[in-house]
Q: What sequence folds into this?
């Protein structure tokens, strides 16, 4: 077994085991395509029974569960895994994606829930976030990413040591971007996680709020703070 | 529907009413007759005493022979007032000197006794007049006895009549109530109602329970159906989306990529529309039911949504004011209420031109208003405003249909007033 270590200069990403419980071959193939070229090794099975057997019997970093499986509902399988004491982060990926379904999944013990069709960048970002959060016991008081600092208790933001005055909602948005620093954050993620809106408003609220924050973060600095990833979302840069 | 009287709670009540009426009549009859008997006996005893005193006076003044003469006179007149009087005068040895009463025997002071005179109950009293005579006087009042018997008979007839009337009225009332309850239960019952043990109330309770269970089964069936539809439509759409994404990745032609991106946007729009339609249907299915609603602070929730929209409203050139009463607490579905407010604000951003004012208020009740100073709604739009697919420019025209469904789901009403000076949506609790 090779042990990987993070280094400041060269980052070697360790391989991560991802279990996917999905009965639809096409959807499973699409998922395999999505994670191809990332740090994830995908192991697939197609039933609740196999999902439980593998999920409980082998170590995985993240489990992705479908819901409408031939031998049952994925949410029940998640509840069974949790009852068995398996704490592996679980993301439910289902065509059932209304708020009641979402609540059912999270109540059963899933850590995240994504509806189909999904945005590939969002899926990867969320799986990574789940894995990252699972490793950290509690939130730290200060988040640091490149030139940016986010002091959670004091609710203040800094760029290269300079204080940036943010309104409470701008600070919430900034915190979320910092938590997902370096990853693409999609519109759906912002709507759902920052503003608790489980749908896409027909107007440009996301763009307007993002551009306001961007203006404050970039005001007086020569380099961009936020980059728009065309067709999928936004990413906080390290500011350099 | 067969439902026996033996198990009827109203039948039992009617029977009890009849028994109570019967008891009341019997007791009343007994009390009345006892009082009458007492009064009649007292009157008779008084008459006997008066007679005895009068005759004793005659004896004292005129002696035995005078007494016997007077008694003969009295007997000659006897019977004219309907009363029967009888006497006996004896000598010291107990030999009969006058009268038809039985031998007096021992005379004790102030003692009287019951006798029978010509078949009628009467009262007799005797006294020692002197050494050579003792006198017994007996009275009977056949008219009074007849009155008593008539009264007793009348009580019987009236009593029977009262008991019958009470029974009849109670039976009619019981029948009516029973018919109504059985009708209500029948209306609630499934096509093949299960027999119920117990009375009408049990029947009603059982039928209500059946209705609730059917309702629950129906809601579950609806939910499964909606889930299946969503799943079966979304799955091929996700495949389509994946294929389009793959296509966009493999082609290097910018024009083809743009087409693929536009096609993916269309796929998303269909999915959004499907979700909205299912949301509307779900809200309508749950209309007025408290199931799934939680206690929440509407003021805080509104402030949060407004926070998200304030920048958009500003960029759209609209001046926003809000009056949100503190801590308006309601039972609601938070996700749906955010949707409701967002849809109304989306509409404002999209349709109200720059330079206008927008005012949002939340008050207890609850009462939510969203008012703008825009040009107002055309009549044709206003008439079909809350209907599905009644789109203005852009959108599927499901936004306000969903708003109304959410309002109805919470048991509220929505109305809109619109003229050249502006438009105002008012959401409030049903009166």
A:
């Amino acid at each position: 077994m090779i042990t990987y270590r993070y280094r400041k200069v060269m980052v070697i990403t360790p391989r991560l085991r991802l279990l996917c419980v999905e009965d639809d071959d096409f959807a499973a193939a699409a998922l395999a395509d999505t994670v191809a070229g990332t740090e994830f090794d995908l192991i697939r099975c197609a039933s609740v029974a196999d999902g439980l057997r593998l999920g409980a019997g082998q170590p995985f970093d993240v489990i992705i569960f479908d819901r409408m499986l031939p031998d049952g509902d994925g949410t029940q399988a998640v509840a069974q895994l949790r009852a068995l004491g398996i704490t592996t982060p679980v993301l439910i990926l289902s065509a059932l994606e209304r708020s009641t379904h979402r609540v059912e999944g999270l109540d059963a013990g899933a850590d995240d829930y994504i509806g189909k069709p999904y945005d590939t960048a969002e899926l990867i970002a969320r799986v990574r976030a789940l894995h990252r959060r699972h490793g950290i016991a509690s939130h730290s008081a200060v988040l640091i990413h490149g030139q940016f600092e986010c002091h959670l208790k004091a609710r203040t933001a800094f760029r290269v040591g300079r204080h940036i005055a943010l309104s409470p909602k701008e600070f919430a948005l900034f915190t979320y971007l910092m938590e997902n620093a370096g990853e693409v954050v999609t519109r759906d993620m912002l709507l759902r996680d920052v503003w608790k809106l489980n749908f896409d408003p027909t107007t440009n609220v996301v763009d307007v709020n993002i551009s306001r924050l961007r203006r404050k973060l970039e005001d007086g600095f020569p380099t961009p703070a936020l980059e728009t990833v065309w067709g999928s979302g936004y990413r906080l840069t390290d500011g350099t | 529907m067969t439902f026996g009287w033996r198990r009827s709670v109203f039948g039992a009540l009617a029977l009890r009413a009849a028994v109570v009426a019967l008891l009341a009549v019997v007791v009343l009859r007994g009390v009345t007759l006892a009082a009458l008997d007492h009064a009649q006996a007292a009157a008779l005893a008084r008459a006997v005493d008066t007679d005895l005193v009068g005759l004793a006076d005659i004896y004292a003044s005129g002696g035995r022979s005078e007494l016997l003469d007077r008694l003969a006179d009295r007997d000659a007149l006897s019977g004219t007032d309907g009363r029967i009087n009888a006497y006996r005068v004896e000598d010291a040895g107990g030999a009969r000197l006058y009268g038809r009463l039985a031998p007096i025997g021992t005379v004790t002071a102030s003692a009287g006794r019951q006798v029978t005179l010509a078949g009628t109950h009467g009262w007799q009293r005797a006294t020692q007049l002197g050494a050579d005579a003792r006198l017994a006087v007996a009275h009977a009042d056949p008219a009074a006895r007849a009155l008593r018997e008539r009264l007793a008979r009348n009580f019987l007839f009236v009593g029977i009549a009262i008991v019958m009337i009470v029974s009849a009225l109670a039976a009619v009332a019981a029948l009516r109530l029973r018919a109504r309850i059985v009708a209500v239960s029948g209306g609630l019952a499934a096509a093949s109602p299960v027999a119920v043990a117990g009375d009408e109330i049990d029947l009603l309770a059982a039928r209500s329970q059946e209705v609730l269970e059917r309702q629950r089964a129906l809601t579950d069936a609806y939910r499964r159906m909606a889930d299946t539809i969503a799943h079966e439509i979304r799955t091929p759409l996700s495949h389509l989306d994946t294929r389009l994404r793959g296509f966009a990745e493999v082609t290097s032609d910018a024009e083809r990529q743009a087409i693929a991106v536009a096609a993916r946007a269309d796929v998303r729009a269909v999915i959004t529309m499907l979700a909205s339609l299912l949301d509307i249907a779900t809200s309508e299915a749950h209309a007025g039911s408290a199931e799934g609603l939680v206690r929440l602070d509407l003021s805080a929730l509104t402030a949060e949504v407004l926070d998200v929209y304030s920048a958009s409203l500003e960029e759209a050139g609209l001046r926003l004011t809000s009056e949100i009463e503190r801590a308006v607490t309601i039972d609601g579905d938070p996700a749906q209420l955010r949707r409701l407010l967002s849809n109304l604000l989306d509409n404002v951003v999209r349709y109200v031109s720059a330079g206008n004012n927008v005012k949002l208020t939340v008050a207890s009740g609850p009462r939510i208003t969203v008012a703008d100073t825009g040009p107002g709604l055309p009549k044709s739009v206003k008439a079909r405003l809350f209907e599905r697919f009644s789109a203005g420019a852009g959108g599927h025209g499901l936004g306000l249909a969903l708003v109304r469904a959410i309002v109805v789901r919470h048991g509220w009403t929505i109305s809109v007033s619109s003229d050249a000076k502006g438009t105002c949506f008012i959401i409030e609790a049903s009166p």
